[in-house]
Structure formats: C-alpha cells, structure tokens
Amino acid sequence: MAQLDRKPTSGNATMMQAFEWYVPADQKHWARLHDAVAGLKEIGIDNIWIPPGCKASSSQGNGYDVYDLYDLGEFDQKGGKATKWGSKEELMQLVDKTQEVGMGVYWDAVLNHKAAADHKEKCQAQEVDPNDRTNKITSPYEIDAWLGFDFPGRGDKYSAQKYHWYHFSGTDYNAANNKTAIYQIVGENKHWSLSVDREKGNYDYLMFADLDYAHPEVKEDVKRWGEWIGKETKIKGLRFDAVKHFSEDFLKEFVQHLDQTLGEGWFLVGEFWKDSTDDMVAYLQRMSHKFSLFDAPLVYKFSKISKTEKADLTKVFDNTLVKYEPYNAVTLVMNHDTQPYQALEASIEPFFKPLAYGLILLRSEGYPCVFYGDLYGIKGEHSFPPSCGGQLPTLCLARKLYAYGDQHDYFDSPNCIGWTRVGTWDRPSGCAVVMSNAGANEKTMFVGATHKGEVWTDVLGWESSEVTIDEQGNGLFPCPGVSVAVWVNQEAEGRDRFGKFDANIYKE
User: Fold this and answer.
1) Does the annotation mark 409 as catalytic?
2) How far apart are CA 367 and CA 464, in angstroms?
3) Residue 248 designated active-site
4) Annotated catalytic residue within 108, 241, 295, 325
5) Which helix (H) or strand (E) holds 95?
6) Active-site residue among 74, 108, 118, 271?
7) Which ranges of 366-482 does DSSP label H, i.e. alpha helix?
8) For the chain, what is the radius of gyration of the CA atoms?
C-alpha cells in the first residue's frame, strides 16, 4: 500500500535564455527559434526566455531601447514593421510551436524607460551628480528633451495612452544646448522613486526617458500592458529588466494585477544585477518571495575561480544567492550582459564552462538558465563557438534524466569536488559528478546500495574507464585534469538519447 501512495517525482526544469547580444539583425530570430524548439525540448529545456519583442528605437535594436510596448512587430514604426527578431506573426508561430512541444515562454519586460521619442517637449529640470543622484548640481531650468511619444504607426490600437514630459522622472539629453547629463524633471509630485536601489544615492535613473511610476497614467497603462501581453501571447512568465532601477511598490502592484486578471502561477524573475547577496535577499523579502532573481554573485564567483590557478572549489557557493535562497535563485553561467565585449562582462575561462554548468545543472538547488551563446555560439565581430566542447546539451539532458534523489556532497578537497544523486523510486538511475581544476583525480562516493553491481560510465565521454558499484553502494569515480565527469549506469534508460542535438541553428 505504501508503494501505491508514493507520489511521482517531478521532472527537473531548465530554462534557456534564447538569445545573445550579437544575434544577427535579420528579422529571422523568431523563425530560427521556431525550428529549434523541438530539439531544445529533447535535451530537457522546458522554458525559454525570449528577448524583448516590443518595438525598439530601430530595427537593429535588441529591445532594451524600448519604444512601444504594444507593438510586437505589427506596425510600421521606427524603420519598419518587424523588430530585430521578426514579425508579430512569426512570434505567435513560435509561441504556438512551444505550446505544441510542451514548452513555456518567458517574456523580457523592459518597464524602466522608453527610447526614441517622436518629438521633443520643453520642461523644467535640474542636473544631478551622476555618482549621487540625490545631489542636485544646478537650479531648475528649461530643457528641450525627447519626451513626446505619439506612436503614430499604431495609433490608439491596444492602448490610447500617449506619453509626455510629465510621465517621466528623468532624461539624459537637452536638445536646446546639445548637452548630455542626468536631468531630474521638475514638477508637481516629481521626484526619484523612493523604492529603488540606493547605489549612486538613488538608482532610479538608468537610461533614456525614465518612466515615473508615481504618475497614475503610467501605472495604469503599464498594468494594462501586462494583462494584454499575457492574453495576446499566452506566455508563462516574465523576466523583468533592471528591477533595481524602478519602483518596487509599482512592481508589487503589477504582480498583483497579473494575479487578479490572468490568474496566479506565473514565473517571475528579476534582473537585480548586483554582487551583494545581502541586498538580493533583502529584495526578495520585500517582494514576499513572489519573485526569483538571477544569481549575479555566482556568475562573478565562476569568473574569479576560472581565472585563479588552483582556486578553492569547495567555496564556489559561498556568498551566492543559491546558497541562501535556493528556491528563488535562477542560476546561470553567462548572459547577454556578461558575455564577452558587453558592459558587465564577466568572462569565464573555457575550461571552466563545463564545470560551471555541471554545478548549476546537476545539483538540487536553484533553477538553472542555460545561455544561447553557450549552446549555439556567439556571432558578431568577436565570434565564439558553442562552449563546453559542444557538450552542453549532454549536461542538460543528464539533468533531465538522472539528477534526482538525495544529494551527497564531497566538497572535501580544494581542487577536486564531487557529489552524487542517488535517484528516486520512479527516476532510479541517479548520477555521480566529479570535477577538478588541477590534475586528474578520483573520489570514492556513495550512490546507494540499490546500485550495487552496476557498471557506470561518463556520459560526457571525456573519462573512458568504467566504474563498478560495490556492495555498499560506493564507487571510485575518476575525472580528467581540469575537467568534469558525469557518471551514470551504462544501462540507464535514456543513454541512447545523447549526442543528437543540432547546434547549427544558423544552417551554416
């Protein structure tokens, strides 16, 4: 009877950031993803975070230079109909395909600012110190700023709201004297948001025309957009850009509005990019843990360890978000901001990429996010091939098939660590992971007496030997130097599924 009462083990979820900064601006990205999602699902990708699909300042813009939230590549604005990524029709075809294969889509919501205004407007403003935005360095004076948004290509479809100077709290350019500075707009109830990060005194202003969420028309229009985008595209979640730069109070209202109009159960993750675990934990507490955050401290830890000879691997999770908030941490190795030649570059030595991905994909804590640039390679002037020697799909599939059950850690040697997952009643295979950032090494690790007599091999194929599990459920698991090995029963279900992923998304 006890066996009949056992609950099925939930499958491990993995998300993928489905773009990198230098994806070609050929309006074919949605179409390429459409053709790739079935293969991604096969290696265990359950949800994709797609780039900002709203109309940007130009057809080359990645969407963080957002112009019109309600134009998903439907209207002839800012140089054309399609966004950099493709047309609205192609976007909807992509979403339909993800639903067909059982995959979810997370939308990248850029709600902090607007860019590429349609006309200038005069208003009063004060210059502030860029390093302390609470310090006003001029008296108020009139500026002529790009703050008027009419959306002439869209008209009033979906939203009749137009934007004027009084809908913004700051900007960075005065056309009257061609001066670039940080201008705080002056007027009734005009001030920086009080519920933002305190870096630089007050970090409300980030770029472009900064939306003022103290203005009721701004709040209502953006909340309506949240409801609209959910119904229009059938997405499953949202990634909020730059959350430390706009009102936490508004974001709580926005989430509550989603719950009330679309139902609960959305996945919500914020980009609170800061190498301070304390600040991130405090943010999650203020947001009542309805959010997840990307584990920025972990990315910086990976970068530092990869550049330090014989760094102490046992400390890899010290002071990371996933250590303190394992259920609200989205773990990652790289993203579009930290990839090479980007503003927040946190490069990771190539040898360490498989180790880093092993650490986020094959452990029980955190919700791992795989980077498009690591899976398919990075384009642009400085191109890079797929990372991990092309074995990232193998690590993803190993997570989906084998990384279940109790976790036993062997973080007992500075340059060689390991852990095991013993499996569950309905996902019994388990796995053993051992990695070294120095010479070849080996570890005796426990995988469970239920596995006695089994012969285990490395799914990556980098370690060629075999390991037989002894009567007590232990095995002596080796790994090559500066590498990782992922050991699984050679007869485990699914071993025939490896090595079939097509990384040639550009058909080159």
Assistant:
1) no
2) 30
3) no
4) 241
5) helix 88-101
6) 271
7) 372-376, 392-402
8) 25
